[in-house]
Design goal:
By secondary structure, the chain is mainly alpha-helical. 87% of the residues lie in helices and 0% in strands.
């Protein structure tokens, strides 16, 4: 198996329900981002407030992606720590 296929397969594997929820949440957020940008292309900003509202929405989406990634990284660290501890206890 080539290295790239192995790396892609690792991204798809789900080991527990929390990992499934995290990945599903990321998919939902990305689909919201796509929808927001599609709508942003057809919105006519007549007032400066309209532009501010669009930028607030984009900022909130960016923050949600950032927080989701931080939570995912924290969950991965917890999973790795649990595996390491269980390996140490088994020895």
């Amino acid at each position: 198996m080539p290295v790239n296929d192995h790396m892609n397969a690792e991204k798809v594997l789900i080991h527990d329900i929390d990992e499934l929820k995290t990945k599903l949440g990321k998919v939902i957020i990305v689909s919201l981002i796509v929808h927001v940008f599609k709508q942003a292309l057809v919105i006519h900003a007549d007032q400066p407030v309209d532009l501010i509202m669009i930028s607030v929405v984009v900022l909130l989406l960016a923050v949600s992606l950032y927080l989701t990634e931080k939570m995912s990284a924290c969950a991965r660290c917890d999973t790795q720590t649990k595996k390491l501890l269980s390996n140490l206890e088994g020895e």
